[in-house]
Amino acid sequence: MDEPNVLLVVLDSVRARNVGLYGYHRDTTPFLTEYADRATVYRQARSPGIHSVASHASLWTGAAVEEHRATRHEDRLRPGTTVWESLADEGYSTALFTTNPVVAHSSNLSEPFDDEFTDDFVDNSEKLFPDAHSPADVVKHEGVSGNLKRSLRDDRPVRSLLNGAHHFAEKKRGRLSDSVTSAELVEEFLEWRGCSDEPWAACINLMDAHFPYEPAEEYDRWGGDRLAAIHADLEKPPANEFIGGRPWWQLEAFEHLYDGAIRELDEYLERIVTGLERRGEHDDTLVVVTSDHGEGFGEGSPLTGRTRLVDHSWGIHEAVTHVPLVVKYPGQSDRSVVEDAATLTRFRDTVDAAVDRVAPHDSFVPDGPVLSSTYRLRKEDALIFEGSDERATDYYGPWRAAYETADDAVYKYARRGDDSLVVRIPNAQESSSRRAEGARKVESAFDGVDPRDLTESDANEVSSGVEDRLTELGYLR
Questions:
Q1: What is the pLDDT of residues 281-340, one digit of tens each?
Q2: Could you tell me if residue 156 is inside a domain?
Q3: Is residue 32 part of a domain?
Q4: CB burial of residue 192 (10 Å; 0-12, 13-18, 19+)
Q5: What residues form DSSP beta bridges with 42?
Q6: For residues 11 and 324, is the Cβ–Cβ distance under 8 A?
Q7: Where residue 391 sits, what CATH number does that domain have?
Q8: Number of domains the chain contains
Q9: Cα–Cα distance between 232 and 219 in angstroms, integer?
Q10: Within 14-117, where are the H helices?
């Protein structure tokens, strides 16, 4: 019997609570709901981290965030540590399809693949005066104020200031070239599938639900022009805007646009599955549909009582950790539902088992507790608070959570500093928390997690073009 194919579809930034399949009041995912009738639905899946680098590194390696320690945009995994390289060694053709700049450009998460389909960026590094400082000289993103300080300290401050003005003017004009849409990525994937008869493994990461929330008109069923205009008025990444004083109701209202973006993603998922069915490849393919993390729209953190979520910048709230997970195992045609706590770190084990033709229909459920954690917000990122160290401390990591299944629900034990909490979560739409001592459970769960030799000491060098795109997406401040 031939080896099964492997397809990982990451619906970037989609949280479980806004997915129709998970009881959401809007029909955001009609195709995924239908598809689940012949697949396995994990109702209590958690992402190991809350941002792209950490979560994708866990998917790639099978390690928890605090094992692989890839937490910065520019972090690098060691060669030979990913499931994609293992599959290549088994004779698989591998490919990545994404416009996520963190996955494709700032880190080295794209390097394990034979083929890569993504955006290209113009490196905005040309200077007016080569002998003076320019923002493009600094790999770490420092923003306007940071580069102003460097310019004033430069030996040629006037020329340096002019270099800075030139750089930010070019950036404002938009230097992204050869922009690729999700529809084009799907077509690229289906065309790639026609190029070889070897077993294949691919990851498709689609960014439509990531900030900025801009669904195509035919899918914008709950937003509208007025809300889109408020959204377009953002001058900075969302965390800066809302922590800095923009009315919170505007962020909450953006969820209407977000829902339209999820509806659009559902259409692309249908095109992918239909294309595989037409090629006769779907039945013997391991198809994993999930998300790398969720998204926050101003929800308050019950853990601290002081923190509010903005996109996926910090926290361990269910809005950012509870993700959809639908798996169609090779040969599966009947519906299965798993209510136990599950983790995306089991993707690698699931692939290995599927290749060996022994994959059970609950392979994402670990033997022990499910772990989620993040070190964001880091102290060096506190510029978002415009100098207010007192407010910033309420957002600093690490944030940690351990999940266990008991009494027909999942129990979450969360901790951040001296704050701890226990949350009962029967499903993606309901939860109840209490101020109980959850710290001991968290400590016990993480005590056995030690760093593994999975990352390199040298970081990726991030070009100015990629930095500009990261800023537009709200990753940089």
A1: 999 999 999 999 999 999 999 999 999 999 999 999 999 999 999 999 999 999 999 999
A2: no
A3: yes
A4: middle
A5: 325, 338
A6: yes
A7: 3.40.720.10
A8: 1
A9: 18
A10: 30-35, 52-61, 65-68, 83-89, 101
